[in-house]
Amino acid sequence: MTKFQRFLLKRLAISVLLTLVAVSVIFVVLRLLPGSPFEALVTSGNLNQEQITEIRAMYGLDEPMWRQYVNYLTSLLTFQFGYSILRSQPVWAVLEPRLINSLILLVPALVTTAILSSLLGMYAGWNRGSRLEKFSIVSTTLLRSTPVFITAIFFIIVFAYNLELAPALGMRSIRATPDGYIETFASLDFLHHYLLPFAVAVLYYSGDFLLLARNGVVEKRGSEFLKLHRAKGLTEMEQLARAGRNSMLPILTYFTLRLGMIFQGLILLEVVFSWPGIGRELVLAIQQQDYPLVQAAVFIMALAVILANLAADVLYAYFDPTVSASGGGSA
Question: Where are the alpha helices (DSSP H) in the chain?
């Protein structure tokens, strides 16, 4: 086994351990919260104590804590997430459409800002000291440091309520009854609701990519290979293209990592815009103490982080000419 393969196995083991810690913490915290998922039903008179006891036995909540934990880990490892306590539906049937809704919003936003912000950052870094560089750094840093829910509320007030350019909440109009994903997403009504949360997500991600691209070009600008290209008579834009191409590795690595953590960063965005995504569903499930739903959602998010970190390691080894498959420098 090569050094690089041992490195990947070590990273995999660490990621699995961290995921185990994350799902274990959520298991314990949910059961330490005051009250129970059935408290509201008992208070409203919909269920009596005998029925509650039967339901607890059905979900295994009457068993010792250690057995609940073993059953919980087994269900996660086999991807059998069980049934939602309050919705009386399979957990995956609840989470699947929400997961797709989140991906439809966040992945295009991440790809868009990665491309546009990286290009702008490269150009700003090449023209160091220009007004464009100063303005882009200040504006994107301000947007990135501002909590996403503040930016979202600002956009709703300005563009939804004052200018009335787009709806404030939801993914479709209340009267819309689409059948299937194609009718849901391939419509002007969806696009109308999509504009504001998409714009906020793009702006939220923009600062990181812009600064990474700008710093990469600034670092490469005085390098020897660019002096050679300049001596060959290449234009400024051709030199910029080569400098940008040679500074892509940090951007690709960060994009992969950001893709894995895409749900965690913008949960509040879904909450503010009432976007029916997995982040908003997680918040509602925590409030209702729906154990199977919360546990499955956290596991999906943790698994995404694991896969993204592994993909980043592979990308780094593939694109960086100084890293070989054996873990050492290239010949």
Answer: 3-32, 39-44, 49-58, 65-77, 91-126, 131-145, 148-155, 181-185, 188-221, 224-231, 236-245, 248-260, 262-265, 267-272, 278-288, 291-319
